[in-house]
């Protein structure tokens, strides 16, 4: 089975094409932080544009 390489931001059709057990590599910018940091950033409205604009959820 060949690993799949997905580019962030993810496209719905790429995610839907995945199967259980697929090996997936993500390529692109990913933001991570602890939970309390997320809350602070949301309250101060200092999230990165992609997240603040609702693109991620």
- Average predicted local confidence, pLDDT: 80
Low-confidence stretches: none
Within the largest sheet, what's the order of strands?
1-2
Question: What is the helix/strand order?
Answer: EHEHH
State the helical fraction. Answer: 25-40%
Largest sheet: 2 strands, parallel
Overall structural class, as computed from helix and strand content, comes to alpha+beta
Q: Could you tell me how far the N terminus lies from the C terminus, measured between alpha carbons in angstroms? A: 31 Å
Query: How large is the share of residues in beta strands?
Result: 5-15%
Give the number of domains. Answer: 1
Q: Using the alpha-carbon principal axes, give the shape.
A: elongated
Describe this structure in words.
There is one protein chain. The protein is of the alpha+beta class and 57 residues long. It has one domain. The chain is built from three helices and two strands; from the N terminus they run βαβαα. It has a two-stranded parallel ribbon. Strand 1, helix 1 and strand 2 form a beta-alpha-beta unit.
